[in-house]
């Protein structure tokens, strides 16, 4: 069995410290080989993102360039149709048959997982590693409770021993940061410094992103 890798899907509009700190902590504490950030093309379960895919990709590349162990996987952006996580995980499983896959998500995502396309199949292809997020308690609806009862584990070694199938709640410090909050700061002329990496903030300024209201 190879060393497990992490996969963090998101719109990253823009990528911020609330994505990156948990990703680094999970990389180190779970001894993953790498964490790949996977920007979504069109997230199927939410409204269309503000910025063009090329901007979101550029920001994720800038954010990870100086961080050993964090990489970017742009496969979903290359598809010209909605990207479903289950399909990406199936593709990665075919490419990496001996590598445990840890799909990283925030607690908000786990709480609404049963709205994802073919959500019942996700754990066949990957583990779920969930980071805590302010405002989201692990108080699950009955469907997610049953899923957690069947797949939840407190033993992180299972994530390296098995290819898929575990849900692991990662004990990270909560960071009250979201892309929405950052877009709103920029729209009203506030300084988003320290919520996101400096090179990403510079890129947003240079490109004039998030300055006009969404119509
Ligand atoms: P938006 O505000 O536009 O909805 P977001 O900040 O939630 O965006 P996404 O790109 O949608 O960012 O998130 C990608 C993944 O990262 C999701 O699984 C989400 O739960 C997780 N995540 C985002 N922000 C945090 C945070 N502050 N703490 C923990 N997990 C987070």
UniProtKB/TrEMBL annotation:
**Signal peptide range in chain numbering:** none
Annotated EC: 2.7.7.18
Q: Which residues form the Cytidyltransferase-like domain?
A: 7-184
Write down the SUPFAM superfamilies for this protein, in alphabetical order.
Nucleotidylyl transferase
- So which domain of life are we looking at? Bacteria
Q: What are the GO MF terms of this UniProt record?
A: nucleotidyltransferase activity
What this protein catalyses is: nicotinate beta-D-ribonucleotide + ATP + H(+) = deamido-NAD(+) + diphosphate
Q: What class of enzyme is it?
A: transferase
Q: Which UniProt keywords apply?
A: ATP-binding, NAD, Nucleotide-binding, Nucleotidyltransferase, Pyridine nucleotide biosynthesis, Transferase
Gene3D superfamilies the record matches: HUPs
Involved pathway(s):
Cofactor biosynthesis; NAD(+) biosynthesis; deamido-NAD(+) from nicotinate D-ribonucleotide: step 1/1
Q: Which PANTHER family match?
A: NICOTINATE-NUCLEOTIDE ADENYLYLTRANSFERASE-RELATED, PHOSPHOPANTETHEINE ADENYLYLTRANSFERASE
Similarity annotation: Belongs to the NadD family.
Q: What does this protein do?
A: Catalyzes the reversible adenylation of nicotinate mononucleotide (NaMN) to nicotinic acid adenine dinucleotide (NaAD).
The identity of this protein, by name, is: Probable nicotinate-nucleotide adenylyltransferase
Q: Where does this protein come from, organism-wise?
A: Oceanisphaera marina
Q: What is the lineage of its organism?
A: Bacteria, Pseudomonadati, Pseudomonadota, Gammaproteobacteria, Aeromonadales
User: What's the encoding gene here?
Assistant: nadD
